[in-house]
Amino acid sequence: MTVEDAVHYLARLRLRRAGGSASVHQPIVLLWAAVRAAAGEPRLVRWDSVRTDLSKAIVAQLDGDSREASAAYPVLALKASPLWDLEAAHQAPPAHGSGAARWLNDHNPQFGLSASTYALLATDADALDRFALAAVDKLDGTRAQQVLNAFGITVARPADSLPPPPVVGQAFPGRRAIAAVWGGNFQGGMATFPREAERVVNIFSDDNGPYPDRRVPGSGRIEYVGQGQEGPQKLSAQGNALMEWTRAEGKAARYWHRPVDGPFTFEHWVTIVGRHREWQRDRNNQWRIVYVYDLAPVGSPHPEEWPIDVAAEVASRSIDDTVPAAPPDTTALDAPTRGDLYRNLTARATARSGRPAGVRTATEYARSAAAREAVILRASGSCENPACTGMPCDVRPDGTALLEVDHVEDLARGGPDEPVNMIALCPNCHAAKTRGANRAALRSRLRVVARRAHAAALEDAQ
Ligand SMILES: [Zn+2]
């Protein structure tokens, strides 16, 4: 194994997310093992001889919060990596389950760096620094430095190798382009940037949906719906935890906005002046309670430069967690009906952009997303194939329908990317339509089914 290989494998690790940022567990266990290799200590150790020390090292980086302190998770989570050796790994249970610690206690296996990784770190002094930096690369900047310090690794994250932070007005074609510069995920509404020394929350507002955020007329303020597209929202969700951190600390966040057919721009700084709750429909059209953050634009990230009234509101840490006792009257005129939603989504899906064919724009992605959403709404949670013999109403663990939306007539053959040419199928029927012996017959049946279901949904008064 070369140090480049090791860095590659470190980059491929999937770190669990906790409290809004990448978890420190795997980096800590890897650094602990790397330092042992550099010091010439034995490569493999038994679980019972190190579990207490490892847990202590982890809890020290969790600011004393012992709830997530077990070393069982990282020791097992690393088992698939070429960097790691775990005795009897093929018998090990899932790393995140409650069985992880029990299995380690029962079997007391040996584990440590893989032999080639150990050999690299034991023989190449420079490799340890590069390994350590790569191991903490996905952590927030300050956390990464703390973890390195905890293991006596003094190499600084090279500040000049970090990209300069974004400046107000800077624009990018999309989230991937932003992540290419500062790292981090490119989905979800809120994110911190791993390649930034300071922890700053970025709030992304995309007019392409799923929920365009509301501008409060006349005030410049923004009502930003928290994270979670289905069911009641939770403050513990990753993005909401970042909002809560920003709010509780009285920090500024970057507000990035993308209009329907434009780039993502860092428009201005915002601070969170309040939080309230309200009833909204989720993407399955079910009423649920959401958190709404009240954002005030500010000219700089420094609180001492904010208008006095904004600073006072931030300081008051105002939250209003009361909610109306019941969802709004669903029969009221202003409440959208299922039919309204379907018609609305269909209109969005079929809107013409006037662009030449073959040019895929943000608008077209939004249209396509609206079309899929419409078909899922139309299917009401069950496979649309009338002859379905599978499990037409099966659901995912989170309760949403296990349905796949497919085009009846392929796009490549000129089928339109619109609900009338789309159908929601269970995985079984989807496979039969795509690869089954009777796919031609099924396809022509489904063509009629999709057209009828579409017509009925457009007429739906409910
Ligand atoms: Zn089916």
Automatic annotation (TrEMBL):
Pfam families recorded: DNA-SBD_ScoMcrA (PF26340), HNH (PF01844), SRA_ScoMcrA (PF26348)
Domain of life: Bacteria
Domain (HNH nuclease) ranges: 370-431
Cross-referenced CDD domains: HNHc
Record-linked InterPro entries: DNA-SBD_ScoMcrA, HNH, HNH_nuc, SRA_ScoMcrA
A GO MF label: nucleic acid binding
Name of the protein: 5-methylcytosine-specific restriction enzyme A
Organism, scientific name: Cryptosporangium aurantiacum
Taxon lineage: Bacteria, Bacillati, Actinomycetota, Actinomycetes, Cryptosporangiales
